Amino acid sequence: MVYDLLFQARFFKLGTERIGKEKVMKAKRVFTATLSLIMAAFPLTAFGATVTSGNQLQDPVPLTSVVQETVTVDPNNPLGTALAGGYYSVDLALENGSNRTAYQYVPKTVGYRQPEVAIAVPSGAEAGQFILDSGWKAVADENGICLVLMTAENGAWKADESAYTDAVVEFMDGRKYLQTQDSAFYMAGYGDGANTVMSAALDKSELFAGFAAFGVDNFDVRLLEAAKSAPSNAKGVMKSEVAVPMWIGAESVTQPVNQLVEFWKQANSCGNEVSSNQYASMIYQPVGYLAKTNQITYQDCSKVMVTLGLDQTQKPEFTSNLYNNFLKRTRRQDSGDINALRAFGTNAERGIERKTMKSNGTLREFYVYVPTAVKNGSMKNVPVVFAFHGGGGSGEEFAARSGWDKVAEERNFIVVFPTGCRSDSKFKASTTWKVDDLPFFSEMRAYMLRNYSIDASRIYVSGQSMGCFMSSTIALTHPEWIAACAATSARVMPSETANVNTSLVMPYMWSVGEKDKYFVEGGKDYGKVPVCIGEWRVRYDISADESNTYTYQNGNFHGYDFKNTQGITLVREQWVKDKIHAMLPDEVYTLYDFMSSYSRGSDGTSYYMNMPITGTSDH
Questions:
Q1: What is the pLDDT of residue 53?
Q2: Torsion angle, CA of 423/426/428/434, rounded to 10 degrees?
């Protein structure tokens, strides 16, 4: 009966053309009354759905009641989620054996792999109403981000809520049902929930890109001393030395507040020079910050903000500023033992444009950065690099964190960031790269040549992890499409690749991290680097003796060049000190420096600095 009525509602307008107006109005009144009775007896939650709109939020639905094993993938929105536009309750199992509830808000505007903010609401506040009143729902809707709401148990936040916050962090980081952006996790706390968030910040700063705690007047400062002796994930670095943006809110400068300010100033290497704005009474900036974690990608972007007086901190205008101008302005990107903080600007702010095209019946996307000199016409006929993200990633997030756009601006080339295909039809969308994506690359390549001022002889590919698979597959199977390949963090064996084309020379660079989980002892690819590089050397009849090998070191980058009889490097192996399974912005320079020396003529000839690379690699 419910489905019949919903069907009638959908086609009600058609009926008005066939019957009189009075009968239509009577039928409409009967239908509306009947539907109201049915919806009261069978709310939308009974069908595993929840509806949110504008400044309204329906009662939460158990998250597990909505999740299915598989979904029907929409070819016009292949990375969409069935959770969009919903408000859900999440049952969490704590390490102490108890259970707690959190809530997740997923806006209709949610994009693939977007940020997530965990919020500790004041005790006594209803979570859904709080995000409406404070403006957090509006911020989530505007930015397409997710919220995880933490609530007090039995009407009050306890002194130690670490088991609860641990479970929330595990839920966020697990991304079991929704692919969020783990480099952009943030946490905010209000009222008596502020102390819970501040405690979490002392323990979990390595996992978050920003914190805010409004109501820490009476924070237990003994926890500050504990953080000074607690080791972080990086050897020799205490948790108190891990930088993270922090916004502190209190009614006044109590002794705990003063100690908190000094603690976070020191952690973030902020100076004593202070400024203010309409939202913060005191703003401290980092000065000459040098990370103590031997990382090479930290940026001086970790501020300490202090607001005295809490009246405005739960109002929409303040919340909008908190997220848009503070929290989202940093991300903690994969890089090493402690992931590096980096300043963040949206792709739109950085001039990176989203493009779409249909490929094999499915809507595909890619992001394009054009350097200033090319935009204004002072540079023409420039190289292009296609940079492929890793598994689960997207062109949007890879553009934001890889650093390719910065190098493109400095070196005057165009860079393209494609998004992979959906890996399967499981409930949680996740991306990958497949051999089936070769036509998509060919179509993107043709599009770029048609629509941009590109040097067709200098087309390059690069990629991280699964993106290494894609770029290496292009290099191995379609060398005629590109001039060189420089990829990172994944082993792609020519002998294990189908349809390899060795008729053309293909300059190849592979960069691997010292601490990459796949290549360290116990990893699945341990000891395989020499084997893979060896196959490339054999392709060009290059032995590994000293006469054919050139070694170099540039900071954390250690390289091995294997040269042909002309003295031209055709294979480069790079080893990066302290690097984990990630691509570093500094690393991008080394990748482009390698590729940019090569070009390919229209007849397929490979050139190094305009010198033909003689002979063929076909055996």
A1: 59
A2: 0
Residue 178, domain extent: 52-343
* pLDDT in the model for residue 108: 97
DSSP of 229-257: HSB-SSTT-BGGG----EEEEESS--HHH
Asked if 106 contacts 117 with a C-beta cutoff of 8 angstroms, the reply is no
Beta carbons within 8 Å of 224's beta carbon, 6+ residues apart: 202, 240, 259, 260, 263
17 and 83 together in one domain:
no
Give CA–CA dist 168/166, Å, rounded: 5
**Which pLDDT does position 341 carry in this prediction?**
87
Rounded-to-integer distance, Cα 205 and Cα 376, Å:
42
Q: CA-to-CA distance for 419 and 426, rounded, in angstroms?
A: 18
User: Which class for 249: exposed (0-12), middle (13-18), buried (19 or more C-beta within 10 A)?
Assistant: buried
SS3 state of residue 212: strand
3-state helix, strand, coil in the chain (%, to 5): 35, 25, 40
Low-confidence ranges of the chain (pLDDT < 70): 1-54, 288-299, 335-336, 615-619
Instruction: Give the start-end residues of each E strand in 35-113.
Output: 52-53, 56-57, 61-62, 86-93, 99-106
Instruction: Please check whether residues 356 and 335 belong to one and the same domain.
Output: no
Distances (CA, A) of 595 to 24, 188, 510: 70, 44, 11
Q: What is the pLDDT of residue 288?
A: 58
Q: Are residues 323 and 403 in the same domain?
A: no
31 and 60 co-located in one domain: no
Give the CA-trace dihedral at 320, 325, 328, 331, to 10 degrees. Answer: -160
Same structural domain, 317 and 458? no
Q: Is the residue at 16 inside a domain?
A: yes
pLDDT at 543: 84
Q: What is the pLDDT of residue 340?
A: 81
Q: Does residue 90 sit within a domain?
A: yes
Q: Beta strands 304-308 and 246-250: pairing type? A: parallel
Asked if residue 618 belongs to a domain, the reply is: no
- 288, 322, 343 - which closes a domain: 343
d(CA 424, CA 409): 36
Tokens of 190: 């209000």
At residue 545, the pLDDT reads: 79
Q: Does the pTM of the predicted model rise above 0.85? A: yes
What pLDDT shows up at residue 8? 34
Tens-digit pLDDT profile for residues 265-290 = 999 989 999 999 999 999 999 875 44
Sign of CA dihedral 541, 545, 547, 551: positive
User: What's the number of domains the chain is made of?
Assistant: 3
Measured CA angle at 206 (ends 201, 208), to 5 deg: 65
Residue-level pLDDT at 546: 72
pLDDT tens-digit map of 519-570:
999 999 999 999 999 999 999 999 887 778 889 999 999 999 999 999 999 9
